[in-house]
Design goal:
There is one protein chain. The chain is built from eleven helices and ten strands. The chain is α/β, with parallel strands linked by helices and 316 residues long. The chain is globular. The protein binds flavin-adenine dinucleotide. The site of flavin-adenine dinucleotide has 21 residues, from strand 5, helix 5, helix 6 and strand 8.
Amino acid sequence: MKVTDHISQAKDTLISFEVLPPLKGKGIEALYRHLDPLMAHQPAFINVTYHRSEHVFKKRADGSFEKVVVRKRPGTESICAAIMNKYNVDTVPHLICGGFSVNETEDALINLRYLGIDNVLVLRGDAAKNETAFEPEPGGHKYASDLLQQVVNLNAGVYLEDELKGTHKTDFCIGVAGYPEKHFEAPNMDTDLQYLKKKVDLGADYIITQMFFDNEKFHAFVKNCRSIGITVPIIPGLKPIYTKKQLTILPKTFHIDLPTDLSNELLRCKTDEDVEKVGAEWLLMQSRELKKAGVPVLHYYTLGRPKLVAEVVERI
Ligand code: FAD
C-alpha cells in the first residue's frame, strides 16, 4: 500500500521507522533482531536506506593506482522484499542518483515493481567519501528532481527507450527529502524551498524531513512550505541521541543545530546511561508535541538504538 494511502486512511498519527541494510557479509538475521522490538508498534511502513559503496585508491608496485571497494551495503531492494514478507508491512526503498546510470535506475524500478513494492523515496545521495562535492555518474542524474522525473515518467509508462516492448506503467508513491534547517549546499532557505517545491510540482507525493531537535524549526518549515503552495503531507524525521559524541557528530554530519537546553543537559551527563535517558526524554517530548500538533506520521531513524526508540514510542 502507498504511504499516502496509509496517511489518508489513518485516524491518528502513524509510526514509521528507517533502517540500514546490513554491511556486506552480515546476514539479514541482524536486521530482523533490530526490527523485532520495533514491529510491536505496528509501523505503517519501514524505510530502507541505500548506501553507495566506499572505495580507496591503493598504490600498486608499478606506481599506478587501483580502485578498491572497502565498504558495501548492498541489497536495499531485496531487503525491502524480505521485510515485507517476514512482517507483512509496507517498505520504502531509498533510491539515489549517486552511483547509478539512468538505465540502472530503470532496471531497479522494474525490479521493485516485480517485488510488489509500491513506494520509493527519491534522493540525490551525498558525495562519495573521496569526493569533495557530489558528482553524478556518467549518464546519471544530478538532482533528486531529475530522478523523480524518471519515476514519474515510468508511472506514465514512458521508458528510456521508445522501442522497448512489453512495458507497463508503474504506480509508485514517491517521497522526497526536505530540510527544516536548510540543505547545507543551498545558498539560503528560500532557494532550498523553491527546489523542494519543484520536486512536489513534478509529482512528489509527500516529504520526509531531515532529523531536527527543535520542533519550532519543523513547524516553521511546514508553514513556509504551505505559504509557497506545497500541500503534500510533511513527515517529521526524528532521531534519538544516545552518546555524547553525537553532540558534535550530528551537527557536523547533518548540518543541524542542537538546542542549548538539550546540549547543556547532555554535557552534564556523567555516564552513557545518563545520556540515553536525556536523549529518550527529549525524543519523547518531541514526539508528543508533534503528535498533538497533528503530524501525519512520526518517522524514526532507528540506527543504533531500536530498543530506545521502541520504548519511547510505547510511552507516547
Ligand atoms: P536534492 O533535492 O537534489 O537537493 C540537493 C541540493 O541541490 C540542495 O541544496 C538543493 O537546494 C539543490 N538543488 C536541488 N535542485 C536543484 C537544481 N535544479 N538546481 C540547483 N540546485 C538544486 N543519502 C543516501 O545516500 N542514502 C539514503 O538512503 C538517504 N536517505 C535520506 C533520507 C532522508 C529522509 C533525508 C532527509 C536524507 C537522506 N539522504 C540519504 C541524504 C541525502 O541524499 C542528502 O541530504 C543529499 O545531500 C541531498 O539529497 P536530496 O534528495 O535532498 O537532493
